[in-house]
Amino acid sequence: MSVSGQKTPSQRAKASAVVHLSVAERVQRGKVARAQVPRDSHAEFEAASTRPDPISLLEEQAVSRVAELVPIRYGRMLVSPFAFYRGAALIMASDLATTPRSGLTVQVCGDAHMSNFGVFASAERSLVFDVNDFDETLPGPWEWDVKRLAGSLVVAGRDRGFSAKERTDAVVAAVEGYRSEMQTLAGMRDLDVWYRRLDADQVLKDLGAQATKTVTKRTDKVLAKARTQDSMAAFNKLCQQVDGGPRIVSDPPLISRLEDLLPGDDAEDLFERIHELLRIYRRSLQSDRRQLLEQFKVVDMARKVVGVGSVGTRAWIVLLEGRDATDPLFLQAKEAQASVLERFVGKSTYASCGERVVAGQHLMQATSDIFLGWVRSDGVDGVRRDFYVRQLKDWKGSVDPDRMIPDSTVAYARVCGWTLARAHARSGDRIAIAAYLGTSPAFDRAIASFAESYAEQNQRDYEALQRAVADGRVTAETGL
Q1: What span, in angstroms and rounded, lies between the C-alpha atoms of 93 and 54?
Q2: Can you tell me the distance from the alpha carbon of 87 to that of 76, in angstroms, rounded to the nearest whole number?
């Protein structure tokens, strides 16, 4: 220590140095965690006596959201227990905080339900399968993502009338996929793990004999449709020609142009500010992508309601034009608030929630949108908010839970498990996690049991929202 009591540069360097354990030490770390927190301890879920009222948690989130849109969120959550589950990330995070954890942390998605996996385009223009929603991403227990995925499979399966065995088969496939892939990754070199990704066409080929003709046919359709989902498709769907130029079609409250939201002069002022905000956002991109974005000019923008759990947060779509009107680019700027995990695992190290989302996405995804970036903006109400920005659509596709069949769900669940393991291995100690999981199906069975228990809890919470709407406690707008 120096005379002043401050650490010297060399002392600070030693304090922040990464500890590199040997493979044997990492294996031992996983085995010690397993001894302290046995795999079968994850099997049950029992609501704590101090469990918060789930509707109060939803109301708490509503405070920082656009008030006129909150009823749409409730309405979308009422569609089914699975729709409720999609919007209940905070509720489940609160519950997961009471469950056993191994003490091994990774960068988690925070909302890894089955609909937050899908296909999209890589920069090399191939279709990849990956996690694709990171609003809640934060360092945390890897088990929480696995349990969120498993619970979603059971809840969706119940909605579709799957038998208990069919639901268990799907969960076991997901967890076995996670466990076996983590074992594979544990034996790989660090760079090979980093470069590993799931090419969508290769995944279908690898499933091979495991996939029935029905599963293969349905998957082919999803991939073919995904390749049509790009900025041109969004342009054709969302725009029309007005006074010789393209304009986003207003469809309040789901799509609201600036003039729908603000008086004339204020709308014009905000549109002018968009140019400044785009310049700030560009700074968060790689230099080559900044150069590319500068070739596009802003044409129009609107507020768009997206998702289920995200409804009420501010989301904007921005239409840009390249060489001419046949060269559109749609960007989506989505508000990033504090992760629902923060109160349970600690605050993010990033001052900007937008940067937190972008950093987490880059860390978990094998390849990310070339325009993924972030910006901080002062709203017309004077409140400073964080946003992350990406393309609205770029060969995007996902499985429709309402069309699930047991065979395809098992195949899909296994791929989701593979994907989640690879995403976790990029930031966490894959060797320790693999040692914790082991080679037996003990953890698979435990999570299958947990998922059934939690699906029951989700059903009770869904019914609580139904009662809250019926009693007038909250207002729901359905059909939007």
Answers
A1: 11
A2: 9
Q: Are 217 and 270 in contact (CB under 8 A)?
A: no
| Together in a domain, 319 and 240 | yes
**Six-digit token string for 300:** 């129009």
> What mean pLDDT, rounded, does the chain reach?
91
DSSP assignment of 259-321 equals: HHHS-HHHHHHHHHHHHHHHHHHHTTS-HHHHHHHTT-EEEEEEEE--SSTTBTB-EEEEEEE
Q: What is the pLDDT of residue 393?
A: 83
Q: Using pLDDT thresholds of 50, 70 and 90, give the confidence band for residue 468.
A: very high
Question: If you search the block for the tokens 């992508």, which residue do you land on?
Answer: 289
Same-domain check for residues 124 and 203:
yes
> Which strand ranges, in their side-by-side order, compose the sheet holding 117-121?
117-121, 127-131, 198-199
Q: Phi/psi zone of residue 311: left (φ > 0), alpha (ψ -120 to 50 degrees), beta?
A: beta
Q: Which of these three, 359, 391, 423, is where a domain ends?
A: 391
Give the residue from 306, 277, 282 showing the smallest Cα distance to 293.
282
The C-alpha angle 324, 328, 332, rounded to 5 degrees, equals: 150
Record the tokens describing residue 87, joined without a space: 């919007």
332 and 389 Cβ atoms separated by less than 8 Å: yes
- Find the domain containing 157 and state its range: 29-102+118-211+408-470
The count of structural domains within the chain is: 2
Task: Name residue, tokens 């940067």.
Answer: 355
Mark whether 293 and 430 lie in a shared domain: no
CA distance 475 to 173: 39
* 257 within domain boundaries: yes
Task: State residue 160's pLDDT score.
Answer: 96
Q: Is 330 helix (H, G, I), strand (E, B) or coil?
A: strand
Per-residue pLDDT tens for 119-176?
Answer: 888 888 888 899 999 999 999 999 999 999 999 999 999 999 999 999 999 999 999 9
The reported pLDDT for the residue numbered 1 is 41
Contacts 24+ apart (CB under 8 A), 181-188: 181/417, 181/418, 181/421, 181/422, 182/421, 182/424, 182/425, 182/430, 182/433, 182/434, 182/437, 183/434, 183/437, 183/439, 185/421, 185/422, 185/425, 185/430, 185/434, 186/430, 186/431, 186/433, 186/434, 186/435
> CA angle at residue 302 from 286 to 348, to 5 degrees?
50
228-250 confidence digits (pLDDT tens): 777 888 889 999 988 888 999 99
Going from the C-alpha of 329 to that of each of 237, 326, 371, 395, the distances in angstroms are 13, 10, 11, 13
Q: 139 pairs with which residues across the strands?
A: 107
pTM strictly above 0.70: yes
- Largest Cα separation within the chain, whole Å, is 75
DSSP sequence for 155-169: HHHHHTT--HHHHHH
Per-residue confidence (pLDDT) for residue 361, from 0 to 100: 97
- Report which secondary-structure segment, H or E, holds 130: strand 127-131
